[in-house]
Amino acid sequence: MRGLQSFRSSSTESSMKTVAELLKLKSEQHQQVHTIGPDQMVLDALKLMAEKNIGALPVVAGGAVVGVVSERDYARKMILKGRSSVGTPVSAIMSTKVITVDSQQNVETCMGIMTDNHLRHLPVVEHGQLLGLLSIGDLVKEAIGEQASLIQQLEQYIRGD
User: Fold this and answer.
1) Angle at 107 between CA 102 and CA 108, to 5 degrees
2) Sequence-distant (≥ 6) Cβ neighbours of residue 151 within 8 angstroms
3) What PANTHER family does this protein map onto (predicted)?
4) What is the pLDDT along the chain (161 residues), one digit of tens a residue?
5) How far is CA 157 from CA 14, 16, 149, in A?
6) How many C-beta atoms lie closer than 10 Å to residue 30's C-beta?
7) Exposure winner among 21, 91, 106, 150, fewest CB in 10 A?
8) For position 128, which CATH number holds?
9) Count of domains for the chain
10) d(CA 100, CA 89)
């Protein structure tokens, strides 16, 4: 698969939540993963992102993630070049260097992958099946929650609770 890079978990990771736990929390907030096909029009992708209030969509063909299309892709590859979103397929602007993680990765590792690769969205794939899409915001929110919990535990320890 062109441009697909997958990160698998190892057993020596930190105690932060796993991607599976984070996706479960997201699904409890009734956020299903929305996708689009590479042959669909950019305008359809924009409408779906606006309707669902999301910033990116995994591009799926034949059940496999073949790319990711984002508002940023649209701005850089359409607006700035004066192209029309009506007759342009998603495949013309999607990012094809797809880096995925499995559900056992932890939040800290995912943040590192996203930072090192300048990504804002990270598809979660297990056995070739798309499980979800994590945004940098999802990961930062979780990391802040983990830090707040750690601070509370340390304060309790210092007080002798």
Assistant:
1) 115
2) none
3) CBS DOMAIN-CONTAINING PROTEIN (PTHR43080:SF2), CBS DOMAIN-CONTAINING PROTEIN CBSX3, MITOCHONDRIAL (PTHR43080)
4) 456 565 555 444 445 788 888 888 776 555 678 999 999 999 999 999 999 999 999 999 998 999 999 999 999 999 888 888 889 999 999 999 999 999 999 988 999 999 999 999 999 999 989 999 999 988 888 878 777 777 888 888 888 87
5) 21, 20, 12
6) 6
7) 150
8) 3.10.580.10
9) 1
10) 23
Beta bridge partners of 52: none
In three-state secondary structure terms, 76 is: helix
Look-up of token digits 């992958």: 113
Could you tell me the CA-to-CA distances from 42 to 26, 47, 125, 157 in Å, in that order? 26, 9, 24, 54
Q: How many beta carbons lie within 10 A of that of residue 81, not counting itself?
A: 8
CA–CA gap between residue 129 and residue 148 (Å, rounded): 33
Residue in the structure block whose two tokens are 């007080």: 159
Report the SS3 class of residue 3. Answer: coil
Handedness of CA 1, 73, 36, 91 (dihedral sign): negative
Report whether 8 contacts 125 (CB < 8 A). Answer: no
Q: What is the C-alpha to C-alpha distance for residues 60 and 155, in angstroms, rounded to an integer? A: 47
| Range(s) of the domain holding residue 31 | 4-159
Name the token pair of 61: 């063909």
